[in-house]
Amino acid sequence: MTQPLWGIDLGGTKIEGVIVPSLDNPQPILRTRIDTEGYKGYEHIIGQIETLVQTMKKQSGLQPAHIGLGTPGVLDPILQTMKNCNSTALNGQPLKKDLEEKLGVPCVLANDANCFALAETHWGVVKEKAPEAKLVFGIIMGTGVGGGIVVNGQVWNGKHGIAGEWGHNFLDESGGPCYCGKTGCVETVLSGPGLQRYYKSITGSMLSLKDILAHALQGNDPAAVKTIDRLNHFFGKAVSVITNLLDPDVIVVGGGVGNIDSIYTAGMESLHKFIFNNRVDVQILKPSLGDSAGVFGAAALVA
Ligand SMILES: [Zn+2]
What is the Cα 105 distance to its own chain's centre? Predict the structure, then answer.
């Protein structure tokens, strides 16, 4: 009998846990959550994860063989400390080692975009629409832009642990400075805040992404139309880099910006212009698991 899969999604506001029977059966045995309270510091976050795991053990009557953990940044494969986390209390900390000591169980860590790609591959839209896919690229375009690579059903982490971190590839100077220290990253152009900044640079006013989109669809706000046209143009240009380099079977696009329908039409036309091929066969799909992808992907890490 296979061991049930234990996954934990470490988010900025909540830590969520799930136990599922197997890759073939993702019907949760248990699903629960606890507040992260990250402002109380690193030790507190570790304590919250420990509390969550104790609760999961008590409620399920099970013991984990391994635990998969989705994190905001990545574990550096050489230094074995966390980096690139927007929950900055984690950066520089040996999270895997500390958790394994506290919990007494081997842990497998991956960043949230990797977990997203993995969950959509095994249990989400890829399973539904492209079950033969060997290479899946998952994109999260929201407040930030992240990416993850799944090869033959497994996360590909890479030498530095940054495989798929396409959000900090150079895209266009007009994006301006990025928090990572570089300029014109994909994230500065394609993230929600990037779109809002661009709109503000034309109009002087800060609108929500939802309002910019609504204005663009109504067609009576040229700056909003221009903002969405620019998104479509640069989405295609940025995705052409992924396609030329990895040529994935499927790209799944999550996050708030991933919900904008025009990237699947006008954005695809833009991709057509930029890829090194005379047609576009890669399937670009909307995810189907919603907010659940993070925690289920964490569980799939230990399959
Ligand atoms: Zn950057």
Answer: 25
Q: Are 169 and 162 in contact (CB under 8 A)?
A: no
| Percent of the chain at pLDDT exceeding 70 | 100
At residue 86, the pLDDT reads 77
Shared domain for 105 and 149, answered yes or no, is no
296 and 243 part of one domain: no
* 101 and 143 inside one domain: no
- C-alpha of residue 60 to centroid of ligand 1, in Å: 42
Cα 114 to averaged position of ligand 1 atoms, centre (Å): 18
How far away, in angstroms, is 135 Cα from ligand 1 center? 25
How close is the Cα of 184 to the center of ligand 1, in Å? 7
Q: Kindly give the distance from the C-alpha atom of residue 148 to the centroid of ligand 1, in angstroms, as a whole number.
A: 16
Residue 179 alpha carbon to ligand 1 centre in Å: 6
How far does residue 199's CA lie from ligand 1's centre (Å)? 20
Structure tokens at 15: 């830590």
279 and 138 in one domain?
yes
Whole domain around residue 29: which residue ranges? 5-116+292-301
Per DSSP, 78 falls in state T
Q: Which residues, including other chains, have CB under 8 Å from residue 3's CB and lie 6 or more apart?
A: 65, 66
Q: Say if pTM beats, i.e. exceeds, 0.90.
A: yes
* Residue found by looking up tokens 């139309």 in the block: 225
What pLDDT sits at residue 100? 98
**Residues 43, 299, 241, CA angle at the centre, nearest 5°?**
95
What is the rounded (10 degree) CA torsion for 7, 120, 34, 47? Answer: 40
Cα 271 to ligand 1 centre (Å): 22
| Ligand 1 midpoint to CA 83 (Å) | 14
What is the mean pLDDT of the segment spanning 80-85?
92
Question: How far does the centroid of ligand 1 lie from the alpha carbon of residue 9, in Å?
Answer: 24
Q: pLDDT of 29-69, one tens digit each?
A: 999 999 999 999 999 999 999 999 999 999 999 999 999 99
